[in-house]
Sequence to fold (290 residues):
Amino acid sequence: MSSYMEDRLIEETAIALLRRSVAVLPPDVLAALEGSLLLERDPTAKRELERIIANVKEAGACTLPMCQDTGLPVFFAKMGFAVPGFEEAVARGVRRATEEIPLRKNAVHPITRRNTGDNTGKGMPYIYYSFEASDHIDLTVMPKGGGSENMSALAMLNPSAGIAGIKRFVLETVVNAGSKPCPPVIVGVGIGGTADECMALAKKAVLRPVGSRSPEPEVARLEMELLYAINRTGIGPMGLGGDTTALAVHIEYAYCHTASLPVAVSFQCYAARRAHARIYKDGSVEMGGE
Ligand code: SF4
Fold:
């Protein structure tokens, strides 16, 4: 494949991913919402969940955005081979998607608040990179709504705070957030690393399918304990009370300095949008598998 073709392929794939992600809720998230509806005991919460489920199904059927906030374009790229101009091709895809889908024009200069009108700008779209030896690129988009992103939090705890300190910080963050991240939420928790790495771990944790558990038993136990505790807060769907505050808690961790215990929380709202494509070196593209 020529680099011109690769370029076009990345651009078109970015548009297709954005189109799919804003309209079609991943099946694991929809199944978790439907499962919560069966278990929910609060009548108001049940009604809210029914409305949320009806809304996302309608959006999927009409291929229309499930929320007016179509988010900031955040991508995760696992690169099996290099494509010259990759970032610019993704940015072109974002610009065209903003017009063609259309998407809300969310990206502004942080100081002047000038809106570029196309969801791009310095550092935007944001792309997390990782690398592997393969014949393909895995490209995932996670449009990130402002309501959930605004509730993100980082604490550099004293290591003596231990697991109790981690739990306290996560729970306090969820309680302080209340209705603002549009619950039921997926709570991504990063533990360890450096401060910036910890925040990135929390964001990546949000991407995991709902229902997945950490393969490490002590981490999986902490995920379950936190999910149970969060759902006992009574915040409920859209903050109106009930049993269903979170659909999942996902934890990712990294080794950290012996003097540090960083903990980060990233929220994803009920509109937990993500879409994935695998782009092969021969020019073929597989959509789905998110
Ligand atoms: S937090 Fe999510 S559901 Fe709420 S307004 Fe933002 S994008 Fe929409």
